[in-house]
Task: structure prediction
Amino acid sequence: MTATVKASSAKGLKSRSKGRMGYVFIAPFMLVFATFYILPVLYAIYLSLLTKKRGVLGEVPHDVFSGLDNYIRAFQDSDFVKSIGNVLIFGLGQIPIMIGLALVLALVLDLYKGAALRFFRTAFYLPYTLPTIIAGLLWGYMYSPNLSPFNQMFKSWGWNTVDFFGPTMIYFSIGNIVTWTWTGYNMVTMYSSLQNIPRDIYEAATIDGATNLDIARFIKIPLLRPTIGLTFIFSVIGTSQIFSEPFVLKQIQYVPDNITPNLYLYLAASRDGNFSYAAAMAIIIALITFGFSLIFLRFANFGERE
Result:
């Protein structure tokens, strides 16, 4: 009986010791996560509840608590509301195209082996390795009214030139940069998932007379549904945060301030110095993004298989 109690006590101490070691290992991550994510979010919420009061002549401006005034102002700001609508419409068109293209490329790569596989996988992934600013500058040159090689080519063919910074084309121009940059990243994610599918399934399907198209349609794509859903969620989050592309293009040619919410709130903070109002807009964007992601996860059911 005593031996049993001692053994049980030793087992309990060993279990608690392992539990403490687990906390030790995750402590560095939690510290970084809290410092660079949780605390900035909490500070943004606090800042969004303040308003700078200028007061009488000679009085130093100071922040005062204003409650939800900044949030009410944001929803009454037609430019901010329009910027949210711009991103929603942009995402409805750009995200399916990017995810669909990444899926096609991943399925094609899955058919290759050897040097051809390594070459095309690297070539498709290479745009993602470039900093977003560099990609924006590169495509900004391609879109430039005076330097665009596309317009020079159109002129040589006798076609009309294209204003890539026009009211309508600017969305296609930004969408092209985003698609060019992120398709390879999503492709690699899907391709990695394809490598985890047992090859025996393909062999059995081939014996039954299935073609590569049949295997892709009825085996690969259904098994990729969780990964497709994951890349879709990441794309929704990324689209809501679009900033670098329009910011870089704005330095080259005129781009509306309200083309994306992040650009609009950045300009509100940098030009006007209204950090509290910018913080409120940032919180609103985060909540809208969270809401769309939650709705998508709730109704898409990418993780469920029939």
